[in-house]
């Protein structure tokens, strides 16, 4: 008797394809995190290493990734470079870190000034890295932007001026748009005024159109121009003098560093945001997924811009007075000096424990928001 086939091969193949798609969907964000975020953390730890060596503190190990150790890449006279199994960052193992360690070149025997310098050096390196990337992106790699319009509000200034979906805005008052600035952000400076937009229209030559913008009060909830942006693309190189590039890079580095403070102020509501409202803060999960999904559209310059933003964010975040962040470590060191060695150590241990709990809760809360966002769930 012939038996019937209960599980057709087409179903099996479909299941395999689905599994491969799932694995590919996971691999992209993981690769984005490893290639974009981890190097910034390693660079941060490298700052600690350099400062420690300059201040006479021995550093037996500089690790890329977290243990267990896979291999020793380089064994120097004073420091060995190791590659570890968990690719989530890096670490610096300093000599004499244990309480009461007699090593004269160890961490515990270092002066307060040396310890503070070592702690803030990671922040300094991240800020410098962010600034250098911003200079490159504002100078040699600067790009003009082409803003594609997806929709035009009825009765809006854009509609009155004859703007249509499919038009591309490439300049305002004769000045090209910068790909790495917020799209059409300069319109706010001309609220209620007439501006000249440079447009590219499908199948037509470049044209200039005069538009009278809404006032600041009229623009609330509607926008100054009354358009929906469908996309932003690179439109060729943008020429700046070296001095102009330095000024633009300084402003962007400052804005990137300070924006994390206001974003953290709203992090509590990010997992429970109203429907349709984006999360106030993205954690590692959200960042990795976003970068992986947009990598093709961003290109090299877009990825470098994200790296600059993250480096500045990482620097400022580490200044917060919450152990085990660098700012928290400095606060604990100052507390030890203020309270005395015995009481100070006890207070430091409690602070580090409490701070680690706070950071873990913060990470979990923001990651919850990332996951809910990926699942399309809001409350």
Count all strands and give the number. Answer: 8
Cα separation of the termini = 57 Å
Give me the secondary-structure category: alpha+beta
How much of the sequence lies in strands comes to 15-25%
Fraction in helix:
40-55%
> Radius of gyration over alpha carbons?
26 Å
Mean pLDDT: 81
What is the H-and-E element order?
A: HEEHEHEEEEEHHHH
* Major sheet characteristics: 6 strands, antiparallel
Helix count equals: 7
Show unreliable segments.
1-13, 270-279
Looking at the structure, what is the overall shape?
A: elongated
Tell me what you see in this structure.
The strands form 2 sheets. Strands 3, 4, 5, 6, 7 and 8 form a 6-stranded antiparallel sheet that branches. The protein has helices at residues 9-54, 112-138, 157-160, 242-265, 284-317, 326-339, 341-375, and strands spanning 61-75, 80-93, 143-152, 168-172, 175-176, 194-200, 207-212, 227-237. Strand 1 and strand 2 form a beta hairpin. The chain is 49% helix and 18% strand. With 379 residues, the protein is an alpha+beta fold. It has 7 helices and 8 strands; from the N terminus they run H-E-E-H-E-H-E-E-E-E-E-H-H-H-H. It is elongated, with a radius of gyration of 26 Å.
């Amino acid at each position: 008797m012939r038996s019937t086939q209960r599980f057709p091969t087409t179903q099996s193949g479909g299941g395999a394809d689905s599994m491969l798609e799932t694995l590919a969907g996971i691999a992209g964000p993981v690769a984005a995190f490893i290639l974009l975020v981890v190097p910034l953390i390693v660079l941060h730890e490298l700052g600690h290493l350099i400062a420690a060596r300059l201040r006479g503190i021995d550093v037996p190990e500089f690790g890329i990734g977290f243990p267990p150790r896979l291999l020793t890449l380089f064994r120097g006279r004073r420091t060995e470079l190791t590659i570890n199994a968990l690719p989530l960052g890096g670490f610096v193992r300093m000599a004499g870190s244990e309480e009461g360690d007699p090593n004269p070149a160890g961490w515990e025997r270092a002066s307060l000034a040396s310890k503070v310098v070592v702690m803030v050096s990671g922040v300094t390196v991240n800020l410098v890295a962010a600034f250098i990337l911003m200079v490159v992106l504002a100078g040699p790699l600067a790009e003009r932007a082409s803003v594609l319009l997806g929709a035009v509000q009825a009765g809006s200034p854009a509609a009155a001026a004859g703007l249509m979906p499919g038009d591309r805005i490439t300049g305002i008052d004769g000045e090209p748009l910068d790909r790495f600035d917020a799209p059409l952000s300069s319109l706010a400076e001309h609220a209620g005024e007439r501006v000249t937009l440079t447009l590219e229209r499908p199948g037509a030559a470049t044209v200039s159109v005069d538009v009278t913008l809404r006032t600041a009060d009229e623009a609330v909830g509607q926008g100054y121009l009354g358009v929906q942006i469908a996309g932003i693309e690179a439109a060729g190189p943008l020429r700046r003098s070296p001095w102009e590039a330095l000024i633009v890079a300084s402003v962007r580095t400052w804005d990137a560093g300070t924006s994390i403070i206001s974003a953290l102020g709203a992090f509590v509501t990010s997992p429970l945001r109203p429907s349709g409202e984006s999360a106030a803060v993205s954690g590692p999960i959200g960042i990795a997924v976003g970068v992986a999904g947009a990598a093709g559209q961003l290109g090299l310059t877009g990825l470098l811009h994200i790296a600059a933003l993250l480096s500045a964010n990482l620097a400022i975040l580490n200044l917060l007075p919450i152990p085990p962040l660098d700012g928290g470590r400095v606060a604990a060191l100052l507390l030890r000096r203020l309270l005395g060695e015995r009481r100070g150590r006890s207070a430091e241990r409690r602070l580090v424990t409490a701070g680690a709990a706070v950071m873990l809760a913060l990470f979990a809360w923001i990651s919850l928001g990332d996951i809910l966002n990926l699942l399309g769930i809001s409350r």
